[in-house]
Fold each of these.
Amino acid sequence: MPRPGVLAVWLALIAAIAVPVVVAGFSPYLAWRSPIYIAAGFAGVIGLGLLLVQPLLAARVLPGLTAMDSRMVHRWIGITLIAMIVLHVGGLWITSPPDVVDALLFRSPTPFSAWGVVAMWAALAAVALAALRSRLGWRFRLWRLAHASLALVTILGTVVHAVLIEGTMETVTKAALCGLVVFACVGALIRLQVWDVKPRG
Amino acid sequence: MPGDSLNRRTMLVAGTALVATAGSGLILPARASGLAPTPSMRGGSNNYRPGAPIVDRIGGGGFWMTGTVRRAGDGAPLPGQRIQVWAHTTEGHERDPQSHGATLTDANGEFRLEMPQIVPAFGQPHGHLAYDSGEFETVFLRPIMSSARDKTLAAHFVLQPV
């Protein structure tokens, strides 16, 4: 049995992600959407939720996890995030191909589309940097700055994308989750001092 | 002195003459000749299905798509023009055939087509309209509702003769 403090942190984290997902499950718009469209939307909501966990794992502030645990979970959540992006874009493509083609080509009439597409490419690049880390052979802090910069673009792009959308997410829980994601991201960047690329002495 | 020539009296005379000229319609044709054609909107043609049937109502109705169709240049209302309408509604996705319908403009160049309630899809509550009959340049519009609770949406066409 974990200590009460540890348990409270994890329950709060799970609630921060689960509450917006559950509230979105009561959206009236769901009644007028096909299962694939609904799945695509929820993949996006869950992807946004995962962006809350990633900075906390990177900064190793989640209690009860060793540094190695944090790294492993961070890696698996990164892979899950890519799966959510594929489900999100793929499901929307099946629902309305021309709208997704417009978004990917940056000619969509909706301003949030471009933010989402930029976030998608940044996330894919961040994962690619992680996958190729040993092969690239960059000095750790340079690699970390590059990975963190791409993660920052992913998070800011996703948050703006989500806030501008009138969709299944309820506005208060959406704003709260977006605020937490940005707070966690900025907090992690500061805690890790990612801009400090001097070799460790 | 130039100041003397621009006194209250000359201003009044010139102003009255201008108003009289505008009222008589002598200035109007010059302004109307500048009525520019409506450009197609980005994404307007998405999920378009050519040849939507002319219907009294799309599905169960409850929502009104309205608008006007005028000719570029002189702004004359265009009666009998076929306007196609489609949207994501409470009765179907944009791609579904039952979400599409068409109507004709009346003698005043106005159209009104009842359709199911539009609901937000792909992030915005919006509709699609097309003029695609060949006599004028094709125009695709994608108007956005100011609120998802709106019961009506308007879109206006100014068409360029081919």
Amino acid sequence: MFENLDIALSVKNLNVRYGDALALEDITLDIPARQITAIIGPSGCGKSTFLRCFNRMNDLIPTARVDGEVLFYGQNIYDPKVNPVEVRRHIGMVFQKPNPFPKSIYENVAYGARINGYKGNMDELVERSLRAAALWDEVKDKLKQSALALSGGQQQRLCIARAIAVEPQVILMDEPASALDPIATLKIEELMQELKKYYTIVIVTHNMQQAARVSDYTAMMMLSKEGERSGTVIEYDKTNTIFTNPKDKRTEDYVTGRFG
Amino acid sequence: MLRKTFDIEMQQVKDEILVLGSMVEQALLDSVDALKKRDIKAAEKVFAEDQAINEKRFAIENNLITLIATQQPMARDLRLLASSLEIISELERMGDYAKGIANINIRMGDEPLLKPLIDVPRMAQKGVDMLHRALTAFVNEDAQTARTLPVEDDEVDALYNQVYRELMTFVIHDPKTIERANWLLWVAHNLERFADRVTNICERTVFIVTGEMKEIKATDDEFWKNQPK
């Protein structure tokens, strides 16, 4: 299925519990490098929980327990010796609602790099990141202004620039365009096509057309059994296949809008 | 049931395709009947009514494009809509074969038929019968029928082969019949192509159901294997 692509992330027998409740059940799949992988599925099936496993964001939830392995280029990120902060430097995240810091545009982008003790030319890094996020031309004359004065779509691209500035290898996106209008959404989608030349992207989306438009691979998630709360991946294939000829009846029903 | 609106609209499109199919079936039978009776008026009517088939096809195509734009179909729904676009264009061209036969009839003017038509109406009947069942299979999304039906094209090919040889016998005996033989050969050729296109419709039905896009069988085999190299 991946032809000769490198594998960036490899999930093996992943289970997640919140307290006693099983949230994710036995997921095993590979995420190819420098491709866009979409995770789709009905509400409450664990898409975001799954995405958060890729950079140990679930560590921040006290009751969450993760079993199984997530290998990042062969290194298990859940190994006790691995520092989760280091993981998140390599595997960045963009959230549903744009969440810029209440600082200037410039400081938003520079923030992560400063914390990491970046020694290079900060002005260059900020410009490069803003250009990569297709925002530079719109903000180059007002870098000192507050990020909160930008439009929602600009704020989201600023968050992408902020994620890029620490030079990650993977960018996780949790519904990155769901709070944006259609034009801003298209800008994010176009941007993703540019970004995938350099970064591995995993996106959770409720918008199936968006998954069909932007992604190369699609994982379909679903509650594993009727009446239970634990989700799992029921089908994973090239996006073309998922949206034209899925193998699983439940995927078919979901993508044709007859379920979910 | 989600997608109720879409399902209703899609059913309407299927109904419209059946209407288009029956217009084409009628046109073909009428064109051959008019030829058999050398009824030029009837041929002119078939010729003129092809316009209605073309317009019907455009109307259905418009509905399909609107459905694609407004409903964003996926998976099987998408295959159904894309295949419907293909099928209506097959039907429109099958209508052109009827128009072509009517045209031959008109251009023959006062010339009598070279021979009474026996196998030519059989070819038409068989082609129409196949089309009818192919469209029923399409509407019912019945891949089983769609897979097996194209074999029957061999019967039409065999009839074509027979008509061809018969006409050649006339020409050999009396080369002055060549033009009249040629008219009828064109008619038979149109009917042979008509039946070939039924196979294309069947291939789409299989695609809708299985997602597999492939040729069911090479057409023209039966005819060509009987011809000298």
